[in-house]
Amino acid sequence: MNVLVWNENRHEKTNPVVAENYPKGIHGAIAEFLQEDEINVKTATLDEADHGLTDEVLAETDVLVWWGHKAHGEVRDEIVEKVQKRVLEGMGLVVLHSGHFSKIFKKLMGTTCDLKWREADEKERLWVVDPTHPIAEGLGQYIELEKEEMYGEHFDIPTPDELIFISWFEGGEVFRSGCTYKRGKGKIFYFRPGHETYKTYYNPEIQRVIKNGVNWAKPTNSATPVYGNAQPLEKISEKANV
Amino acid sequence: MNVLVWNENRHEKTNPVVAENYPKGIHGAIAEFLQEDEINVKTATLDEADHGLTDEVLAETDVLVWWGHKAHGEVRDEIVEKVQKRVLEGMGLVVLHSGHFSKIFKKLMGTTCDLKWREADEKERLWVVDPTHPIAEGLGQYIELEKEEMYGEHFDIPTPDELIFISWFEGGEVFRSGCTYKRGKGKIFYFRPGHETYKTYYNPEIQRVIKNGVNWAKPTNSATPVYGNAQPLEKISEKANV
Amino acid sequence: MNVLVWNENRHEKTNPVVAENYPKGIHGAIAEFLQEDEINVKTATLDEADHGLTDEVLAETDVLVWWGHKAHGEVRDEIVEKVQKRVLEGMGLVVLHSGHFSKIFKKLMGTTCDLKWREADEKERLWVVDPTHPIAEGLGQYIELEKEEMYGEHFDIPTPDELIFISWFEGGEVFRSGCTYKRGKGKIFYFRPGHETYKTYYNPEIQRVIKNGVNWAKPTNSATPVYGNAQPLEKISEKANV
Amino acid sequence: MNVLVWNENRHEKTNPVVAENYPKGIHGAIAEFLQEDEINVKTATLDEADHGLTDEVLAETDVLVWWGHKAHGEVRDEIVEKVQKRVLEGMGLVVLHSGHFSKIFKKLMGTTCDLKWREADEKERLWVVDPTHPIAEGLGQYIELEKEEMYGEHFDIPTPDELIFISWFEGGEVFRSGCTYKRGKGKIFYFRPGHETYKTYYNPEIQRVIKNGVNWAKPTNSATPVYGNAQPLEKISEKANV
């Protein structure tokens, strides 16, 4: 399996807290733990040519992990369209945290993907509400994060195909924190945690969820549907003209 | 309730069969039967200024019915964005037949909305698979149409929130013919039948489904969610810096 | 519309706090506010003959509201089967609070319907996560209850067809508090709040949800499906014996 | 992975056509192809002690495959309850064909699971409507069976969590032929084909679906939820008595 971890990689360059949290970038930290699972992992970032998302790179990517935040608008529309096309062809997509507002996620959802937010060092507890799901493999009843950014409902997304986590926040909100979708032949997993000013992606349970999500999102080798004008498979009767 | 029936209204002008089927246009035929239900119905067509979809018209529309086919590309993008915004604000949307390929439907779905098709005067039987649904009110076990265009799976749509009808076609295909979705505060109903060369919209059962769909899609008067930075509702504890 | 409010009516007889909260019984309080909506409301309780759920009563009931807690086991199995049969025929069912453990709800769900609970006078905030739903009509972004019993995840239910409310609890848990299901021709709404030691059913927003739920759950007048051996609707070809 | 293939094994003893189709029983045929995948497969049949479903056997079973038809009523209720308990604990369940009317499937669904049927040597074409699903791995756009028993809608089941196949039948019906459900910690896959008088279970594509289904249904090693009275995870404030 080939996984590509895409990161905006801007906070890391301007905010010393983030730079200290993630000296190899958020993408570097995610790539590192994914590699433990004998997955072939590459990374790409916004400031590379074509954001590192060339046709060749996309063509060989099985699952794309996406982290972006303050520069969503700089991702070029034609690149977003190529990513969408690849998802519809079967490439998995794991969207993390502020990626809810990325062009690619909004395009695949058809909604604003808006939400409430607050940066207040508050406690988050992600409850597993679907213990049957392979993305919950190896987890306890909940994951507790001492400090995170809050995301609160209403989260303006389509009804998730599956809802795996619901977050409780100290300040009084809840959030649908782990949601899956199907689009075309592709599978999508949105996972909430991972604000850049915290070391969330070093948390072993969070790493486990992302590993599980990547595995779940891998392409299914089923027939690519044929579209357009189709010959009948059965004889069609002649009918009177009325 | 204010309903707006939008029609491309092109086939009616160039194809004598369609002109004969629908002397007042497809929009006229649909408006006519909707009016029986004490609904306030207006119509709009592609060739009007702003396609008849001005801000004022959209603002006062509760449910928009959409029929388009060969001129999807002529619908201006900024109008499509306004319609999407209104759906997310709560306006209902009933998408008919070849409207599956309209810009507005594809934008709200995030997929290609592609499918198989065939024009062969073939029999369609729409089976009710959700008899609990208000859109099935007043129907029998199935609706039979002697001649229709075929639409076949795979239909490249997100998993429907609700699946109400599945079509059987004489030539050997099946199709998810009645699907509901939620996007933002808006409700969407896609309904398959209605090829322009047949008199499908005069069929009383088809009319009943569209009436039911319009009623089901009407806006819910719930609170409009507030998005963005949010003050805590509960006290957040001080935490040690780690 | 004929609504029947069923209540176990035992706490009211033994616990002075409950007796004071609900001098006419929980069923009496619920019937009272439902009657404001020109709904024809009757009540029934466990200790009546056949628990007040005779064939005649069930036959004329459009929506049944159910509250039970400490005497679930005393509800006779053959009555539960009759109620299930009526739901499958189209009668709506609104299950409140501790009704999650009623025989009828467990029978319709196929799971244990188990959960976490705690009686600790704690704050509950029910967030609306589906503002399109008619059950959210007239509500704000959330409902706040100063003191309620806590119910926490994991809630052992099938995936809800629709999830309308998610509760936040002061003690750190979340809960899927408003869930809809379809079974046969019947619609089911589970709504969490309503512990007997609090005056929850006098809260106007809670009343609004229950009114909305009763309206949503009313029977759909669609064809009753025909089951069993069926004649072909189309000619079946002769095939060679292999 | 330990798979147990359960079969009623009655038609094989009394109907020479079935005996010829399945000389080792339907269970034998299914076990044979499952073993190709390095799965540890055992079988059990109705007439064994405890129907071959002892506590020990169930405890070590990861996925149970179920075929039954004319003797559903002979499966003892206490055994059905044990199987249900194991599914809720996480054991996968693959229900085949006439197993739709088995006690275990009806108990887990909460509905009648009734349908239309006809034995008329008719053609069935199962269309893949969810090409993202691992159960569709390795399949084409559809599976064609020259002769099968017809099952037609309405199929009285809860809304499937996922719908993978829709069948077209020569005689004019459609059917939701591949459905998944979650109950407790267990995953359930219902798959329609497999009437005893045809050699359906020797069809390589049907075998592929059942293999995929068994793999998909395997238990998830997530935390077993804790139910009942729960200590608070956060401090609960003192509140005034009102």
From TrEMBL, chains A, B, C, D:
<dbReference type="InterPro" id="IPR009381">
    <property type="entry name" value="Trehalose_catabolism_ThuA_prok"/>
</dbReference>
<dbReference type="InterPro" id="IPR029062">
    <property type="entry name" value="Class_I_gatase-like"/>
</dbReference>
<dbReference type="InterPro" id="IPR029010">
    <property type="entry name" value="ThuA-like"/>
</dbReference>
<protein>
    <submittedName>
        <fullName>ThuA domain-containing protein</fullName>
    </submittedName>
</protein>
<dbReference type="Pfam" id="PF06283">
    <property type="entry name" value="ThuA"/>
</dbReference>
<feature type="domain" description="ThuA-like">
    <location>
        <begin position="2"/>
        <end position="217"/>
    </location>
</feature>
